[in-house]
Description:
about 20% strand, binds 3-hydroxy-3-methylglutaryl-coenzyme A, globular, 8-stranded mixed β-sheet, Peroxisomal Thiolase, Chain A, domain 1, 15 strands, 15 helices, alpha+beta
Amino acid sequence: MTVGIDAMAIHAGKLRLDLAETFAPAMDESPEKYTEGLGLHASSFPDVHEDIVTMGANAAHQLMERKGLEPADIGRIDVATESAFDNSKPVSTYIAGCLEKVFEDDFHHANKGERKFACISGTQSLDDAYNWIRAGRNRGRSALVIATDTALYARGDAGEATQGAGAVAMLIGEDPDLVELSVEQGFGSADETDFLKPNQQFPSVDGKRSVQVYLARMREALEDYESVAGRVHPDDFRFGPFHTPFPGMVRKAAMLAYRHLTRDTEIEDELEPELGRQPHPDEFDDESAYHDAVREYMDALKGTDQYRAWYDRTIEPTLDIARHVGNWYTGSVHVARLSALRRAREDRLDAAGERLLVGSYGSGAQAEIHTETVQENWDEELAALDIDDQLEARRDISFEEYEAIHDAHNHAKDDEFEALTTPSGEFVRDGQGPMNERTYRYVE
Ligand code: HMG
């Protein structure tokens, strides 16, 4: 039995903040810090009437309509988010409630839940759906996995540069049309306090440390994956979609991955005349000398034709969308997968049968590596997506509008704000009910 992702849809927050032209000057920073350093041009933001429920429901609605599905076809709805507003009632119940406004049938026999482990919970929800199907408990039905977040940081936090908002809906089923998931997985997991939200809306972040923790856990996950799947060679996979808090992060991870994957291969032999052999810890008297040697090797490796060609072919295409939307937390690695496949389509690549090495990550902290195999109908699935139209249709906001929108989504502020866009054919948030529940409606 093959199990994997049958179809995907996204919903991007309807506002767009230009980081180089609007945000950088207001912060008195150089635009190149964003476009070159972090690798970001713009962030998506939710308008006043959007939140994790509306974005998730809009993505799921589009997906179900496109695939001609009815609620009875769905046996599970799992929502992955780190922006939840309720410690008891899961976001999936709200999303199912929204969808029941537009479908005749209901989801009363679907198992609903919510997954939490920072950004990695989107991938963990894929796992849950995969296991449910492989266990034969799905009664022929598919699972809906929705990764939805408003990734906002406190005003003035360094993370403000990497914000974003959007949802990714994924249909998990048997004989999938998009990608098959591997049985093999690798994990790197440790108790870390690099990024957390202890009952607070905006995260406490140690940004610089979070970068190091990401790299350490990702390396462990790759080693763990290799312990079950065998050694991975850089040419074994066509694309490497990684969790992308900002593209500069993936640039660092790709560099480390390439060094690891080329060790003791013909590529290391080929590079030896230029760079020497890779440093090994047992060749050094102390740790800092070893680290200096590694840094020197990596600096030189970065400039080689071999690395540049591999990076441009395998990693760069995964970053196309992230550059224009920022961090979508739980959805981020799934946006990276879409981005790679979208580029494959643009380049008319015959991608069926190609493999993806997928690296997910969540602060706190855990990384997971698995592989995916692109399926025969991938091209048709990609053709049906409206990513470019959605990104193009976003309304550009000024810095003053950004400040108001940030306030509008700040739970500690209860001022009324005017929406900047006019909803059409979408779910919107329309208020608060008597038990403090959020209320929603569908706008034709
Ligand atoms: P910062 O202090 O704003 O930026 O923090 P910086 O000074 O470190 O500059 C960023 C990069 O731009 C640097 O590149 C600079 O050199 C470069 P690097 O040296 O690192 O390669 N730069 C320039 N380049 C060209 N021209 C210029 C220029 N100026 C600077 N003029 C930081 C950046 C990422 C720490 C901050 O934005 C932050 O705290 N972000 C939030 C945390 C984060 O995203 N961490 C990533 C790993 S953890 C993760 O991925 C999990 C997460 O998604 C949450 C979850 O799992 O739930 C966040």
